[in-house]
Amino acid sequence: MVDAGGRLVVGDTYEVKFAHETLVKASHHSPARPKGLRLELKSTGSWSEPRYEVVLVRHFDDLVDPVPVPVPTDVTRYHPAVKAFLAGRGRQAVTNEYLARAARILQALAAEAPRRGVDALVPSQVPPGLDTYRAREVDRADLVLRAPGGIYSIRVREKVSQIESPVQPPRLRREQASWQPARKVEVVSTGVIEVIVEGAGMGYSGDRFRDSKTITVEEKLPRIFRAIEIERLRSAWRDQEREREAADRRDRWETAMAEARVKYEEQARWNAFVARSNEWEAMTRHRRFLAAAETASAAASASSGLDDFLASAEQLLDRRDPI
User: Fold this and answer.
1) Radius of gyration of the chain (CA)
2) Which pLDDT tens digit goes with each residue over 123-163?
3) Phi, psi (5° rounding) for residue 162?
4) What's the pLDDT at 75?
5) How far apart are CA 284 and CA 280, in angstroms?
């Protein structure tokens, strides 16, 4: 692939596609794979005329290693966003038993962000101008991280279980208001904390970092900053590619304009030459007519007025001769 310039046509059949998909996936785990690069199989044809290529693309995951994020056990001063989270009754998706832990997780993210070149903001501090989708993410966020690669909305929630718990209807109407629905399910706390990160480079509904049987969400916090850093590198690379493509377009435009100028000048010189040639052809015809007229005038002993006219015509021909 390197010798082929990073792009290699492999075939036009689905059998070839499936065979090379296996090779491409295997190459991702090969020790011979160059750091920061990997292979991808792409379709460059159509449904009726398939065509498959293996291309060498940038892989920024190799360039960023996770760095530990310290999570405080005791917090003396919370970040303003964490304070708002603790005070925001009705917006918290965490039970009271695990509220302090959720606050420590948010505080760890807010404290680590400046050390990574990222701003930690209260959602209300995010400047306007976001598109509707991103603005909706920010509006429901508990913490917002503003990184060079984009805006990231952080939400902390607890995974809960709902069990069927039907409630007997009241015996008397006055025991329950008419507008109050009967409780049909009971929410049970699980203690499983989940951090949802929405923003550039994340999934459609955000990337989720959750407690598992072997690792806690606190230990997964480095993955959040790693994902943000990878997106920063990817965004910078996209900017460089756009600048390179814009420079290539400018170079192609300037080359095309230079070629157009040359062709225009050549055509202009040719048009001028053709015009002079046509004038010379007409002038030659006029001179033949003048010679014939002078001969006829001398044979007929014409008046001097005709001689003067022919003499002035000869002077005009001399002045207008293109040669």
Assistant:
1) 41
2) 988 888 888 888 888 888 999 999 998 899 999 999 877 65
3) -115, 120
4) 87
5) 6
pLDDT above 90 for 101: yes
Lookup: tokens for 80: 């303003």
Task: Choose among 69, 99, 97: nearest CA to 86.
Answer: 99
Kindly provide the b/e burial profile for residues 186-205, where b requires at least 16 CB atoms within 10 angstroms of the residue's own CB.
Answer: eeeeeebbbbbbbbbbbeee
Dihedral angle of Cα 268, 269, 271, 274, to the nearest 10 degrees: 180
Residue-by-residue DSSP string for 139-197? HT-SEEEEETTEEEEEEEEEEEEEEE---PPPSSGGGS-TTSPPP-EEEEEEEEEEEEE
99-112 and 217-299 helices, crossing angle to 10°: 40
Look at the chain and count its residues: 323
Please report which confidence band the pLDDT of residue 182 belongs to, taking 50, 70 and 90 as the band edges: low
Helix spans in 90-158 (H): 99-112, 132-139
Alpha-carbon dihedral sign for residues 64, 146, 115, 197: negative
**How far apart (Å, rounded) are the C-alpha atoms in residues 56 and 205?**
29
| Exposed e or buried b per residue across 88-121, where buried means at least 16 C-beta atoms within 10 angstroms of its C-beta | eeeebebeeebeebbbbbbbbbbbbbeebebebb
DSSP alpha helix (H) spans, the chain: 14-27, 80-87, 99-112, 132-139, 217-299, 304-320
